[in-house]
Amino acid sequence: MMELPCLRTLVMRQLQMRLCSSHRQELVLVSRHDGQQAPEILSGKSGHTKVADVYSLGMTILEVFTVKPPYSGINEYALPLHIAVNLRKPERPLDVIPENSVMGNVLWAILMSCWSHNPAQRPDAEDVQSLLRTVRDDKLVPILATSESEAAI
């Protein structure tokens, strides 16, 4: 697991997010619009709500683990269509959240619940916090097969 330096997130008047290193006091512009917004906001069905914030929280958690913005391989102009119309969710980054890992599966389930297309099915932020406390990064490693028969499966 990669260690991240201590970062501070600043919200500017134009609703742009900026990351500020506590060590160097530099500002780095980070685009935070469509890839972080919930489908219901992008489609115009809803305004900003607590459950929409939980969707964004899930995206922020994913970015902490991957050190890349969600949907980083998709053109930013195509993101609203990708998220709100096609209802696409980020792909699981198997290099940092492996499938054959108990904690990886727990973490991915938390993120998927944050990104539920039905806002009423998303957890609240306190539930996300409680669930994340159970995830240990030393357990985000793949479980190795213990016998040749399991390795063949």
UniProtKB/TrEMBL annotation:
GO cellular component annotations of the record: cytoplasm
TM spans (from-to): none
Protein name listed in UniProt: Protein kinase domain-containing protein
UniProt domain Protein kinase: residue ranges: 1-132
Recorded GO MF terms: ATP binding; protein kinase activity
Family annotation (PANTHER family): SERINE-THREONINE PROTEIN KINASE (PTHR23257)
Pfam hit, one: PK_Tyr_Ser-Thr
Coiled coil location: none
Classification lineage: Eukaryota, Fungi, Dikarya, Basidiomycota, Agaricomycotina
Organism of origin: Rhizoctonia solani
Gene Ontology terms: biological process: signal transduction
